[in-house]
Every structure is written in C-alpha cells, then in structure tokens.
Write a structure and sequence with these properties.
single chain; two-stranded antiparallel ribbon; alpha+beta; 5 helices
C-alpha cells in the first residue's frame, strides 16, 4: 500500500476491518473516511516515486499483454496494482509496513485476498527503485503461471 505515518490505522466504529492499513482514510482531512473510489483517487494523486516507477513498468499492457489497474478497490482494501485477468495484486510497501502492526495488517489483508483467489506479490519500495528488473521478472513469472498462453 502507498501509505505513510500520516494515515490513521484504526477502523471506523461499526465497520469492522475498514481502515486496515489506512484504507479509506484521508490523512489531509484529519482522518475522515473516504469512499473507496475517492481514496483510490487520492492515492493516485499522492503516489510515491517507487509507485510511479512501477506504474510506468506495468501500464499499457506491457506485462504479457495484461492490463493493470492502479490503486484499485477490492472489498474494503485498495490494491496498489491489480491485474483482474490474472487475479494478481502487486503491493509496494513503504516503511509503515515494516512495523509489527503493519505486518499484522498485511497478513490479514493478504489472507482476505487469497480467500478471493487473488495472489499477492509484495515488494519494498527500495526493491522497485533499485532492483526494478528483478521485480518485473517476478511479476512476469506469476503472470505466465496464472495466465498460460
């Protein structure tokens, strides 16, 4: 997920799980909840450099002819990058994901994704910036496995 320390992480009362990992929260409005599509738009506008770099590498069907969507809502979550045809989510994790709380949220989120038949690939932001070739090779390998030609 594209998030930073300004994202509150507690769910809104009465909506269990909402807000896990910062989804649906608007850090610019004091933590008010946003609709999933509005949150996705916010995330696209405020993308970090490594998110922008990976987007340039997966957009326009560059990966095995498959379409990726950026900041795509899935249930209560927002995937950094999603390929519907392959049912593949690619997440680019910043420093909040390295905390115990962040890792626990990612585990729950990934379990939900798997329960929906979605495979999740996670990369650190530094991997996208400094090991982009290996990241792309990993994505391409999963696409070949999930969508054989």
């Amino acid at each position: 997920m594209n998030q930073d320390a300004t994202h509150p992480s507690s769910p809104r009362p009465g909506t269990p799980g909402r807000g896990a990992g910062g989804e649906g929260l608007d850090p610019c409005s004091g933590g008010n909840f946003m609709e999933p599509i509005d949150f996705a738009r916010f995330q696209r506008r405020t993308a970090r450099s490594y998110d922008q770099l990976l987007w340039q590498l997966v957009r326009n069907r560059q990966r095995s002819g498959k379409k990726f969507r950026r900041q795509h809502p899935l249930g209560i979550y927002t995937a950094d990058f999603y390929c519907a045809e392959a049912k593949l989510v690619v997440e680019v994790d910043g420093s909040p994901h390295q905390t115990a709380e962040g890792m626990q949220k990612d585990t729950s989120r990934d379990a939900w994704m798997r329960s929906q038949g979605i495979e999740v690939l996670r990369f650190g932001g530094w991997q996208v910036e400094f090991e982009a070739r290996q990241v792309i090779e990993s994505i391409d390998a999963v696409l070949r496995k999930r969508c054989p030609q």
